[in-house]
């Protein structure tokens, strides 16, 4: 048995040695520990999950492809140059197309000249047939001169036959010539008049037919011109979107490109977002509108701090990154720069790597301590191998 008198004697010997200061310190420490334990249920902290990612534009990279093959004639851009949407990047040689286009343009001008003259000729009245002016095409000016010569010759013949007929009518009245001779003169006169009408109608029909043919030919030439201009436009490669162009290696004046070949890639200068890759065990905790903090690898967070943002989109399907399934999570940033204490700004750039912390919930320190203790002490949560030992 323990000698109680001895214990009491030891306490009497020890207690006088404890100073008041030591007793106060002990009491303060004991009170602090008690207060800390009592405050655990009332102190809340953010619980987050982490995911790596990178900064990228909202829009995808756009590939610049050729629609036709050819030799590069002009190169207007250089590597990493900022371009606008629709800005010409390069032009392929188009000598054959240019020659065809000049030929078609000349043929159109000729057809329009023919159509103008034929429209004027087909509108001529009977009294204007031999007095038309203002024809501009050599072809129909010459053709009209030939027609006018034949028409004037016929009209002169008509006048002569008319005079002969008038004389014969008078002679017939005077009973100098028989009626048969008068009828012969009338027949000759009518034949000349009929020849004139045939000449006029045939010429008008030819002009009308030629007018229709030239109009059809002009329509066809205009279609050819549109096609050639479209092909010529295809030879000028333009930027589909605005941004920074890259991957132009091997492109120079005189180089040959195939139809459908990728001649460059444009990274759009659109709003920057952060694309993170969440693991399957964390994806169920993430949802659209959830807050997140981002640590930029290029900026020391102790000096530059963190960026804040929200989740814009959570992928419904996974992708493989380094043979590991991950889910894409796109996040919006509240701003595109970080600031030092002196006010200097460091702006974000596409391709910077990021460590994201998604705020899942707020829990008290007591709950976290309880969960940790439960993981340690609950046999159900322990690995099977450790329970079998």
From TrEMBL:
What InterPro entries does the database record attribute to this sequence? Beta-barrel_AprE, MFP
Q: Name one GO cellular component term.
A: membrane
Entry's localization field? Membrane
The record places domain AprE-like beta-barrel at 272-358
Membrane-topology descriptor: Single-pass membrane protein
Report the Pfam families cross-referenced here: Beta-barrel_AprE
What transmembrane ranges does the database entry give?
Answer: 24-44
Instruction: Report keywords, A-Z.
Output: Membrane, Transmembrane, Transmembrane helix
**Matches recorded under PANTHER family:** MEMBRANE FUSION SUBUNIT OF EMRAB-TOLC MULTIDRUG EFFLUX PUMP, TRANSPORT PROTEIN COMB
Name recorded for this polypeptide = HlyD family efflux transporter periplasmic adaptor subunit
Q: Which organism is it from?
A: Larkinella rosea
């Amino acid at each position: 048995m323990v000698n109680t008198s001895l214990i009491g004697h030891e306490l009497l010997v020890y207690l006088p040695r404890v100073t008041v200061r030591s007793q106060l310190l002990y009491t303060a420490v004991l009170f602090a520990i008690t207060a800390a334990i009592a405050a655990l249920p009332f102190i809340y902290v953010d619980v987050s999950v982490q995911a790596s990612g990178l900064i990228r534009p909202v829009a995808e990279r756009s590939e610049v492809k050729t629609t036709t093959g050819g030799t590069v004639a002009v190169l207007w851009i250089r590597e990493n140059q900022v371009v606008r949407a629709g800005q010409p990047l390069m032009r392929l040689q188009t000598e054959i197309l240019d020659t065809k286009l000049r030929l078609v343009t000349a043929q159109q001008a000729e057809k329009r000249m023919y159509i103008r003259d034929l429209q004027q000729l087909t509108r001529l009245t009977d009294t204007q047939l031999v007095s038309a002016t203002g024809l501009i095409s050599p072809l129909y000016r010459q053709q009209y001169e030939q027609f006018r010569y034949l028409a004037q010759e016929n009209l002169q013949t008509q006048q002569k036959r008319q005079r002969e007929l008038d004389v014969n009518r008078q002679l017939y009245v005077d009973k100098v010539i028989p009626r048969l001779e008068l009828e012969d003169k009338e027949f000759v006169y009518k034949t000349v008049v009929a020849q004139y009408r045939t000449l006029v109608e045939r010429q008008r029909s030819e002009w009308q037919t030629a007018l229709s043919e030239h109009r059809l030919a002009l329509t066809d030439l205009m279609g050819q011109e549109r096609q050639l201009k479209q092909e010529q436009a295809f030879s000028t490669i333009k930027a589909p979107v605005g941004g920074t162009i890259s991957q132009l290696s091997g492109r120079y004046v005189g180089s040959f490109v195939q139809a459908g070949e990728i001649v460059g890639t444009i990274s759009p200068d659109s709003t920057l977002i952060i694309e993170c890759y969440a693991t399957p065990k964390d994806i169920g905790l993430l949802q659209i509108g959830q807050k997140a903090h981002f640590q930029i690898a290029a900026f020391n967070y102790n000096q530059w701090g963190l960026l804040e943002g929200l989740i814009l989109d959570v992928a419904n399907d996974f992708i493989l990154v380094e043979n590991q399934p991950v889910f894409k999570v796109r996040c919006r940033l509240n701003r595109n720069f970080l600031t030092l204490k002196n006010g200097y700004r460091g702006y974000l750039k596409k391709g910077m790597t990021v460590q994201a912390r998604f705020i899942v919930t707020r829990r008290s320190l007591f709950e976290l301590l309880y969960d940790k203790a439960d993981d340690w002490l609950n046999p159900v949560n322990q690995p099977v191998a450790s329970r079998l030992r």
